């Protein structure tokens, strides 16, 4: 049991280490700069959404609609390009993501609908809007060349997207560990009544979490649509399980009150290297889903069955 | 997540709520809504009241309806929702067709349902015994099962090889399709189990207050797990019938059925917080959703808009349920 709890505590490092060993065995030249930078670029799509979801999960809520928001904001950004121009259209796309988050917040914070059920419903609603806007056809953007700018590799390693993801992780880490608002987030997630009693506005914190999560999904969606010069209503349908798996691998608990930015970074890198390894060994896409689902279930089971000794700095999540 | 504690918080309301008026209103309200939709359908489309269209509505209702019966158990027991339904339907549809050549139509059908029930058992064990959030558990299990089923048949479409089984499913008794009769039987059995048996009482007890139920020696974990097994079996049966009807099954054949079923159940007034509801209520909700969908199809409303309406219905129905139950406490 002690060994298990040690494993749970350092699981991000252990799992990531194991995955990288397996991946480097399967993929020739895994540590080559090209493979790494491309892998990192791919990971940043999951990663940007995972940043938002980490915040929301720490606050004790969840968003299943991120995949639909991802598709919807990308479509908005692409379809508005002819009339607004590329930059403003991208901004509107991200704002559309934020609006989706506000709607989620309205349902779950104001109308008190269980977040899982509320975002399940909005997942369907946003996806339908995406289909409706595009006639269920992929739409193309105006400027093909811009996607090349996004795909350009700087310093041999970073693309615009992966740089944004890594900067986002660093900012999130500082915010969660140093800022008062970050601490409040843990308090809300650990015990909402206690947080309310100590003068934290639980409703606003949760609402902000929903809006932040959807905004990040919007950013990821807009970047994806710009990188592929396409907006498609079927984008992101398989993302939800992947992203939740990545965040949970990173040690963020589904019950709220615990999580970290660096853990999420580890989780995202794990999922990304797994995906890369499986693609290189030509594992079919549906089997990759099986692996993601399996990891998710396994870690959630571990979270429930093994209680790690409380860490002093993790905002003191009480043992249930 | 707060969901785990929610059923416990909401329990007082169900017993103090002596607003039979309100309940009557909500029941009659839905009946009224069904009438309005039927009236609108009859006025706007000449084909609405034809026998062919009625049989269409009944047949499409039957496939979803079998899942609805299972989903009612999940909601009443406080299990939120079962998102593995698309996977278990695909399991039922694909296996009951793919295994026909090797072991015969009937054993294939039975085995497909049994395996779908086994998937439900895994979800049930995770939810009931390990205590994982039901939506996450069924999302994960659904992803895994769908992947395995796809891998088993190589990710292609499976076709039926046994014409006799297809004829049986398409046959009619006194003009009523066999599928509809099977649906009626499942509904009656479901209603009997939930409303008249010890298991049904246990389901309600677990859904309204799991701690109190546990203290009264109700096998809470088994009852919770059982609800997911029932849903798995129902979805498997529904998927098998769907496969036999279409005589072909692709891996994504069950997509969307989970939402249709959840919408029907919550629109029927079964509480998502658990402990309240019945199979007939869910079926009334299903009738509303089916008739509404049929009218939308006849009106030429596009599929995305239908999905939009479905999602909005879920959100509004659940929000109304929460609001009504809160008022009941006050």
Structure, described:
The complex is a heterodimer of chains A (320) and B (330). With 320 residues, chain A is mostly helical. Chain A is 74% helix and 1% strand. Chain A has a single domain, classed as ABC transporter involved in vitamin B12 uptake, BtuC (Orthogonal Bundle). Chain A contains 15 helices and 2 strands. A two-stranded antiparallel ribbon of chain A has the order 1-2. The relative contact order of chain A is 0.20. The model of chain A is unreliable at 310-320 (pLDDT under 50). In chain B, the strands form 2 sheets. In chain B, strands 1-4 form a two-stranded antiparallel ribbon. In chain B, strands 2-3 form a two-stranded antiparallel sheet. In chain B, α5 (85-98) crosses α13 (220-246) and α9 packs across α13 (220-246). The longest helix of chain B is centred in the last third of the chain and has 27 residues, at 220-246. The model of chain B is unreliable at 1-16 (pLDDT under 50). The chains are: A mainly alpha (320), B mainly alpha (330). Chains A and B meet through α7, α13 and α15 of A and α8 and α16 of B.
Question: What is the strand and helix layout of this fold?
Answer:
The complex is a heterodimer of chains A (320) and B (330).
Chain A: H1 2-9, H2 11-26, H3 33-58, H4 66-79, H5 81-84, H6 86-110, H7 115-134, E1 139-140, H8 144-151, H9 160-178, H10 180-190, H11 192-197, H12 202-228, E2 230-231, H13 239-249, H14 261-280, H15 285-305
Helix pairs in contact in A: 2-14, 3-9, 3-12, 3-13, 3-14, 4-6, 4-7, 4-12, 6-7, 6-12, 8-12, 9-10, 9-14, 13-14, 13-15
Chain B: H1 6-9, H2 11-16, H3 20-44, H4 51-76, H5 85-98, H6 100-103, H7 105-130, H8 134-153, E1 158-159, H9 163-170, E2 172-173, E3 176-177, H10 178-196, H11 198-208, H12 210-215, H13 220-246, E4 248-249, H14 257-267, H15 279-298, H16 303-329
Helix pairs in contact in B: 3-15, 4-10, 4-13, 4-14, 4-15, 5-7, 5-8, 5-13, 7-8, 7-13, 9-13, 10-11, 11-13, 14-15, 14-16
